[in-house]
Design goal:
Elements lengths: L3 H27 L3 H33 L7 H27 L3 H29 L10
Helix pairs in contact: 1-2, 1-4, 2-3, 3-4
Length: 142
């Protein structure tokens, strides 16, 4: 299990890089102003940071009970990413529809596209994070 400060570092790094990638893509895809999509990206990022911390804390506890091997196998990485993104998809659709003044269907399609991108991003980021900041056997505090 990762200690709280490590979780915070993980979340901040993940979201900082996500904003750097997502805001320009959202501007290009939607044609909305950079200010509008940057603000929306920031709101979604703050939501994702809050959810990321809670989700990873809960996932670590669940994983510890399952006694899965380290490092996490690909199947566990996929389960982790899918669970995280499913909740963000549901909440994100409403926020995107409101923020861009588009239909829920349009927001769903836009969010679905970004979700597919972020599934890959989360898989790669979390793998790289584990390589750079490996979980030590003594890191068992919640």
């Amino acid at each position: 299990m990762r200690p709280p400060l490590d979780r915070l570092r993980h979340t901040l790094l993940f979201e900082f890089l996500a904003i750097l990638i997502a805001a320009p893509i959202a501007h290009w895809v939607t044609g909305e102003s950079a200010v509008t999509v940057s603000g929306l990206t920031l709101v979604l990022s703050l939501l994702a940071m809050w959810w990321n911390y809670l989700y990873n804390w809960g996932f670590d506890h669940w994983e510890q009970r399952k006694n899965w091997p380290r490092p996490r196998p690909l199947k566990v990485r996929l389960l982790h990413a899918l669970g995280f993104e499913a909740v963000l998809l549901l909440v994100g659709v409403v926020i995107i529809a409101w923020g861009l003044q588009i239909s829920l269907w349009q927001a769903f399609m836009l969010d679905l596209g970004f979700m597919l991108f972020f599934l890959f991003y989360a898989l790669v980021f979390n793998w790289a994070y584990d390589q750079v900041f490996p979980l030590l056997p003594s890191s068992t505090t919640a």
